[in-house]
Design brief:
Elements (H helix, E strand, L loop, with lengths): L12 E6 L4 E11 L3 E11 L6 E2 L5 E2 L1 E10 L2 E11 L12 E9 L3 E11 L8 E9 L7 E2 L3 E8 L7 E2 L2 E5 L4 E2 L5 E9 L1 H4 L6 E9 L5 E11 L4 E9 L6 E10 L5 E11 L8 H5 L14 H10 L6 H10 L5 H13 L6 H19 L10 H9 L4 E5 L8 E9 L2 E9 L9 E5 L10 H6 L21 H6 L3
Helix pairs in contact: 3-5, 5-6, 6-7
Length: 487
């Protein structure tokens, strides 16, 4: 399961919590109440078959998961809650096919926070508490328009009474994952828009748009755009859905934006999600209809060069584009390869595809020079891919001489596609080549391994406990410090 983390101010993330047995998924979204101020909602779902059920006083079986959440600002605890989440009672533990959920609300003023979560299966004597940490920001200015966090919704209904699931008269059952398999064909979401009455006059009209865009290209996906004309209100409620039956496999953002009568951006928010839909594919016929006469692609007349150029686009390709290229272009003729390369960059810069390609190729040459190995081009390595996909990091911490650890690098991005303070950990387990493997990141859609420190320390550290996340502390070991406080 891919992980999602914070996207931006008042945003949503989902974090898969996987220990040896326990599997749980946490998400959160920030909202604003005119009566009570800003607050964070957390949604935690636990996979029933991943935890241990024990007999209770009712003669049935039940699981208990202990959850601790702490919100800190500048190291000072601002909110804290420790709860025991009880599963439904069951009679037959061999037929557990459900998840059970916990939802909480934390009132927090605007600011920058660290959310720390600890979760453990209380019925598992060998369980080790899983811990995670994430930075987030809350910012709901009183004199400007803002969009709340976007809550993905599994189902909703009119509220008969007010409870923890209730917002704006609806009971919303949260969808804590960011992954939509082919069996799910509706993407339902809830959000709120604040303070339009502070910016617009009472009789002004403005637009609230919501659409799905490619995560990689930021282009709106055809047929996935909706809008509403609105008049100013203190709070505008958005509860809507998209039919994603025909949405291809890939990485996407669901975007909500407010535009004024002159079509200028006023406020925007987005949430990342993934779609698996093998039945939706790119069409070779569409590619071969592209006219490349007198274009930059027309001047590339070597099939081998074209294949290398196309392969170099994989770090910035959508999943659909990469799948198409890998499966349809291996035996293609010169013209088809030219057409694909041209259409790839025309989709990103219709006004000047040649400039888009030339700018990107200059970066490809850089990573080929720095990160190539004897058997890989630079763009094929993990460091090369991350560099091309996200750009150069703001900070690189290098550790090549720690006698108890494999050589490793920690890359830090202050901002990364509307994310804050994202890091990538690469290591070199063979000690010889220039090929550093990505083993952990807190960025959206990237590999997330809580035991990354154990992997780095396996040069001289062994453990028989698969749940152990860290090696023994030793003099000179700084991996954890480098990750939390990059130098």
């Amino acid at each position: 399961m891919k992980k999602i983390f914070t996207l931006f101010v008042f945003v949503f993330f989902a974090l898969g919590l996987n220990a040896k047995n326990l599997q749980a998924y946490l998400s959160y979204a920030a909202f604003f109440s005119p009566a009570d101020g800003s607050y964070i909602e957390t949604y935690l779902s636990v996979v029933g078959k991943s935890v241990q059920f024990v007999s209770n006083a009712n003669g049935k079986f039940q699981a208990t998961v202990q959850i601790m959440m702490v919100f800190k600002e500048d190291g000072i605890i601002k909110e804290f809650k420790k709860t025991d989440l009880l599963s439904p009672e069951v009679i037959d533990t061999s037929k557990i096919d459900f998840t059970f959920m916990d939802q909480q609300r934390f009132t927090l003023p605007d600011g920058n926070y660290d959310l720390e979560i600890q979760i453990v299966d209380k019925n598992n004597a060998n369980a080790i508490a899983y811990k995670a940490k994430e930075s987030l920001s809350i910012n709901f200015p009183k004199d400007s328009v803002a969009v709340s966090g976007i809550q993905l919704v599994e189902s909703y209904s009119k509220a008969a009474t007010t409870n923890i699931l209730t917002k704006s008269g609806y009971d919303l059952v949260p969808f804590t994952l960011n992954f939509y398999p082919s069996s799910m064909n509706n993407l339902t979401f809830y959000a709120e828009v604040y303070n339009t009455d502070a910016l617009f006059k009472a009789d002004d009209k403005f637009l609230v748009n919501y659409y799905i865009e490619s995560f990689e290209t930021k282009k709106t996906i055809t047929n996935y755009f909706k809008f509403r004309k609105e008049t100013p209100k203190k709070v505008i409620v958005i509860l809507n859905e998209f039919d994603i039956t025909d949405l291809p496999s890939g990485n996407y953002n669901l975007v909500i934006e407010v535009k004024d009568k002159d079509n200028k951006h006023v406020a925007i928010n987005e949430i990342f999600f993934q779609r698996s839909n093998p039945s939706a594919q790119l069409s070779l016929q569409d590619i071969t209809a592209v006219d490349v006469s007198n274009t930059f692609a027309d001047k590339i007349t070597s099939i081998d060069t074209l294949k290398d150029f196309i392969k170099s686009t994989y770090p910035v390709s959508t999943q659909l584009e990469k799948f198409f290229a890998e499966n349809n272009l291996k035996k293609s003729d010169l013209k088809t390869l030219q057409q694909y390369l041209y259409s790839f960059w025309a989709n990103r810069n219709p006004d000047n595809p040649a400039k888009a390609w030339n700018d990107y190729y200059q970066e490809v040459r850089k990573v080929n020079k720095v990160y190539s190995t004897l058997i890989k081009r630079g763009y094929e390595t993990d460091r090369g891919r991350v560099y091309l996909q996200y750009g150069p990091p703001n900070n690189i911490t290098q550790s090549y001489s720690d006698p108890s650890a494999y050589p490793y690098e920690i890359w830090q991005y202050y901002t990364l596609q509307n994310q804050r303070n994202k890091k990538f950990v690469f290591y070199q387990p063979d000690l010889v080549t220039n090929d550093y493997e990505l083993i952990h990141s807190n960025a959206i859609g990237e590999i997330n391994d809580p035991a990354w420190e154990m992997k780095i320390m396996k040069r001289n550290t062994t453990s028989n406990n698969p749940d152990q996340l860290k090696g023994q502390d030793y003099y000179g070991g700084k991996a954890d410090d480098y990750f939390n406080n990059p130098h």
